[in-house]
UniProtKB/TrEMBL annotation:
GO annotation (BP), single: glyceraldehyde-3-phosphate biosynthetic process
GO terms for MF: triose-phosphate isomerase activity
InterPro entries: Aldolase_TIM (IPR013785), TIM_sf (IPR035990), TrioseP_Isoase_bac/euk (IPR022896), Triosephosphate_isomerase (IPR000652), Triosephosphate_isomerase_AS (IPR020861)
Recorded family membership: Belongs to the triosephosphate isomerase family.
Catalyzed reactions per annotation: D-glyceraldehyde 3-phosphate = dihydroxyacetone phosphate
One GO term describing the cellular component: cytosol
Keywords: Gluconeogenesis, Glycolysis, Isomerase
Pathway linked to the protein: Carbohydrate biosynthesis; gluconeogenesis; Carbohydrate degradation; glycolysis; D-glyceraldehyde 3-phosphate from glycerone phosphate: step 1/1
The keyword Secreted belongs to this UniProt entry's keyword annotation: no
Organism encoding this protein: Dimorphilus gyrociliatus
Enzyme Commission number, as recorded: 5.3.1.1
Protein name: Triosephosphate isomerase
Quaternary structure, from the entry: Homodimer.
Length: 248
């Protein structure tokens, strides 16, 4: 807890159209432009400008992904400079769906982190174990491997918010219990203390993601090492405002 400002990210994934987004913007502008919590939403790339130009300036806007170079023959991708050109300052990197649907590896995600930071974006790198890895007792081994690939590419940790999203909890209605999430977050801070430094271990915000909703957010938010959430499905609904207010 301490000085780490609570942070709520809304990852819209590949959802929405202008009409649906208008409704989301209306409830965000009314209820999410708060001082007690940092709020950032991540629309699909084609809507970054649409959302940024309509949303209250207190609410941040993030891309869901970007590539590791400035420009060129990379059909279908976007660069950090393009995100900034749309007045957005955040990017999610290494989301579980990028890793497991699109086959992104630790090395690529690390390179993306380095380049996005170099270009002046703030990043939300994501890590998480699969169910079979947890059941095989490999949770920390997997998470620490993913963490190292990210940490080796970060110089300025003040531009980083880490998201722990167990793959088995994403879009499944199976949330990690507050105790399970707290345990992982504590282990991640220990890893950061040993492999980066004590300052980063203390100050880095670590979000939990995976089936967070209006009903379970308050219990999760009570845990001292959970500094907020990365919310998928529930970020498209008015319930998101309850999540924004999970810890005041
Ligand atoms: O992947 C997530 C956020 O990035 C979590 O998604 P859900 O909240 O839909 O489980």
């Amino acid at each position: 807890m301490g000085d780490r400002k609570f942070f709520i990210g809304g990852n819209w994934k590949m959802n929405g159209n202008k009409k649906a987004i208008d409704d989301i913007i209306a409830f965000l502008n009314e209820g999410a432009a708060v001082d007690h919590t940092e709020v950032v939403v991540a629309p699909p790339a084609v809507y970054l400008d649409y959302v940024r130009s309509r949303l209250n300036a207190k609410i941040g806007v993030s891309a869901q992904n970007c590539y590791k170079v400035a420009s060129g023959a990379f059909t279908g991708d976007i660069s950090p400079a393009m995100i900034k050109d749309n007045n957005c300052s955040w990017v999610i990197l290494g989301h579980s769906e990028r890793r497991h649907v699109f086959g992104e590896c630790d090395k690529l995600i690390g390179e993306k982190c380095a380049f996005a930071l170099q270009e002046g974006l703030k990043i939300i790198p994501c890590i998480g174990e699969k169910l079979e890895e947890r059941e095989a007792g490999k949770t920390n081994e997997v998470l620490f491997r993913q963490m190292k690939a990210i940490a080796d590419n970060v110089k300025d940790w003040s531009s980083v918010v880490l998201a722990y999203e167990p793959v088995w909890a994403i879009g499944t209605n199976k949330t990690a219990s507050p105790e399970q999430a707290q345990e992982v977050h504590t282990d991640l801070r220990k890893w950061l203390a040993q492999n980066v430094n004590a300052e980063v271990a203390k100050n880095l915000r670590i979000l939990y993601g995976g089936s967070v909703n209006a009903g379970n957010c308050k219990e999760l938010a009570k845990k001292p090492d959970i500094d907020g959430f990365l919310v998928g499905g529930a970020s498209l609904k008015k319930d998101f405002i309850t999540i924004v207010n999970a810890r005041q």
